[in-house]
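Chapter review: from sequence to fold.
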Amino acid sequence: MLRQNDREYWLKTMDKIANPVLTSLANQQLKQLMPVEGLDDRKNYSHLEAFARLISGMAPWIENGPRDGKEGLLRKHYAELIRTGIKEATDPSSPDYMNFSDGLQPIVDTAYFAQALMRAPNELIGKLDLNTKQNVIKAFKQTRTRKPVFNNWLLFAAMTETALYLLGVEDWDPMRIDFALKQHEQWYAGDGIYKDGIELHTDYYNSFVIHPMLVDITDHMAPLSADWLKLKEDINKRSMRYAVILERSISPEGTYPVVGRSIVYRFGVFHSLAQMALQHKLDASLQPAQVRCALTAVIRKIVEMPGTFDDAGWLKIGLCGHQPNLGEGYISTGSLYMCAAVFLPLGLSPTDHFWQGEEEWTSKKAWSGQFISIDKAL
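The token string follows.
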């Protein structure tokens, strides 16, 4: 049975989250209209955060979503808005030109911008006009003037260089990619978990950043180096294992442990699980339908809580509703659009197994007394 209701709900939710950002930017009004909740100094970074994180999650749907029917029209609409947004974000003469050169934060969000291009090379690179493409390259190169922090941030620099390679830049820097990949190999702690720098953190940065970026970088760049190709197999195995851990963390009610930094990224917590579903790399213990049902429960639990959005439809700081005290000092309105990472499976065809049937997820089965398989560590 083709299960359309969940896909329609996901599309409706994505539309609700994306529309204020992308419509305002296409109309050169993002900086004018977007509220920036958080510390005052975040106003210099928040707009790039919102745009880059949002389109990183939407990109597979833009690239591979339906071309016909109601969804096809919606996809086309957003593809055009995003391309216009890229133009405005990188054009120094635009009122919505974004900050790529001041402070450390742009290193982060240029990487998510890069990830969007990597995930939709035909729609978001191939269809850019020459001037906009050159502006993107100039913007990305501006981040090279600062060095990333010695932790997961190494992957941000590597992502940007990967995108520059895909954009045809001759002076892309393989060392930034090599250092990030090999340093994370040193930081692997076991059972699908990487340390975040020299220390192990109990948070979701393995999902927000580490696994998805390692996978995307090696997907594009591994064929260029025997060293990188050798790393790729283990990177994928570890990501598959971590996706199992994420799926098992979703409670029967669609909640999950509230631990660690950046919990206000909401269902962006499941970036890595969504990526494995998109790439058909789920472990054999996970059925695609159970992942969809689990993620749908999470999305519903969060989106339908009053206070998630303001009256104009912009996200507000919080996990379940408006909880501004949960936002660390680096959190602002733009940061919250990391939640769009959950929408990666919309890049799968509506007829894909992910969108078909009903299947209870692991914790729902376990806490109702049903049989589940033993969880085996990697």
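Two observations follow directly from the output. Strands lie at 188-190, 193-194. The chain is about 50% helix and 0% strand.
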